[in-house]
Amino acid sequence: MRIIYTLALLLVMFVAAPGNIFAYSYGDANKEDVAETFKLITAALSSSPADWKAAEAAYETRREEIVKHFGANVDRVLESNIKASDADKTIANYKAMLVMNLERRFTNAEQDVTDYANVKILLAKARATCDTLKPYLSEQLSAADIARLDGDFDTALKALGNPGLFGVGKSEADPAKLKQSLDDITATLKPLFPFDQAGAAGGQNAAAGEGAAGGAGAAGGNAGSTVNPAVTVSVIGGVLIVGIAAVWWARRKGFF
C-alpha cells in the first residue's frame, strides 16, 4: 500500500509539472543565435583586409531564421549589403535587425506572462541581444541611460512574479509593469539603430516586410525552438527529486 501511495504521489507531481518545459527548450538561455552571428560577422569585417567570405558564410548559417522571423525583404537588404561589400551598411542594418529581434522576444513575452519559465528565457535572450549592442551605445547614450536599460530588464524580470514551490515564495506577475519596462527599452534603442533599405533590390518594400515578419515572429515565437534532451532529463530528474523529498516529508508527518 505504501508503494502505491508513493508511486501515486510521484505521478501526480510529474503530471503537474509544466508541460511546455518537456516539449521544447531554447538551448543556452543567455545566448541569442542572431546576436552570436553578428559577432562573427563584425569580427570578419574588422580584419584587414575584411574577410567577406567568412562574413557571408556566417550570415548564411542564420539566413533561414532571419527570413522566418523578419521577412524576405530584410534578408534581401542584408544580402545586398554583403554582396556590395559595404561593411558600414551591413553592420548598421544587422544592428537594426537585432532591435527587431528584441521586439520579437518582447512581444512573445507579453503574450503569456503566466508562463514563467518560458518568459524568463525570452527575457534572458533579449538581454543577450541588448548586451551585444552595448559596445555601440556609448557614442549615443550616457552611462546613466545605459545603466537604465539594465534597470529596465531587472524590473521586467521582477514583474514576472514567481510561481514559488508548493506556494512558498509565490508572487503574482505584473503584466503592466512588464510591458512598461519592455516598452522603455524599445523606445531607447530603436531610434539609435534604424533599418536602411536604400539601394537594395526591392528595398522600398522592406519596411512592409519587416512589419509582416514581426507578426509572424510573434505568432510563432516557439516554432524555432528545439528539443534539448539534456534539459528534459534534468527537468525530469528535478521533479523526481522533489517528489521523493515530498514523500519522505509526508512519511515523517505520518500521512501514510
Number of helices: 11
Q: How far apart lie the N and C ends?
A: 9 Å
Mean pLDDT score: 79
Estimated helix fraction: 55-70%
Using only C-alpha atoms, the radius of gyration works out to 22 Å
| Shape by Cα distribution | elongated
β-strand amount: under 5%
Catalogue the unreliable spans: 3-26, 203-237
Which structural class fits the helix and strand makeup? Answer: mainly alpha
Strand tally: 0
Description of the structure:
It is a single chain. The protein is mainly alpha-helical and 256 residues long. The chain has a domain at 25-192. The protein has helices spanning 2-16, 20-23, 33-46, 52-70, 72-83, 87-111, 116-133, 143-159, 175-189, 206-219, 229-252.
Task: Give the SSE layout.
Blueprint (H helix, E strand, L loop, with lengths): L1 H15 L3 H4 L9 H14 L5 H19 L1 H12 L3 H25 L4 H18 L9 H17 L15 H15 L16 H14 L9 H24 L4
Brief overview, please?
This protein is mainly alpha-helical and 256 residues long. It has helices spanning 2-16, 20-23, 33-46, 52-70, 72-83, 87-111, 116-133, 143-159, 175-189, 206-219, 229-252.
Key words describing this protein structure:
transmembrane helix; membrane; single chain; 256 residues; elongated; transmembrane; mainly alpha
